[in-house]
Amino acid sequence: MPDMEERIVLGDDGVQRCRWGSSTPEYRAYHDTEWGFPVSDDVRLFEKLSLEGFQSGLSWLTILRKREAFRRAFAGFDCQRIASFGESDIARLLADASIVRHRGKIEAVINNAQRMLELLETDGSLAAYVWRFEPPARERPNGQEPIRALTPESQAMAKDLKKRGWRFVGPTTAYAFMQAMGLVNDHAAGCDAGNAVDRARKRFTIPT
Q1: pLDDT tens-digit series, residues 74-112
Q2: Which of these is catalytic: 6, 47, 52, 153?
């Protein structure tokens, strides 16, 4: 999740946004078109879980700016292909200056791709699995509330993923994933993108 101060600002384009969404051009595009909109595509969900793991200890902006490089390096986040990565692939990734070169995080993505294949066998899809952890609906942040870092649902997801052998998916990471992939709408009240997310969530069919 981006570092967020839950206040609304009016952009030079006349659009009201969460303050963090106006801080850089990359954040503006991400905030307006992606963050919080519900996702049911397994590739996008696996990519986000993987990138949230890479973000650990870094800013999301750093990862966002490298996202296309990560996609090239990790075969478009195709779990079938990543699951077969071996030592030569790890060496290639550790030598790739366009991504975050962290052996533990790289190995975690490969491990998680293998665990993803197991999850597909037992649960049908990653989408069906993660949307089981959707929290109850609540009011959007009003700009004065403390910023949430985790919830009981994100703790439950992280605990279950750990039990299944996934790595680098703690409760804070899981909640950032939930925010980004639309399981919750944490755009501040009054944010135009947050209103669009509300409408998208009403049209969205929960995967089963």
Answers
A1: 999 999 999 999 999 999 999 999 999 999 999 999 999
A2: 52
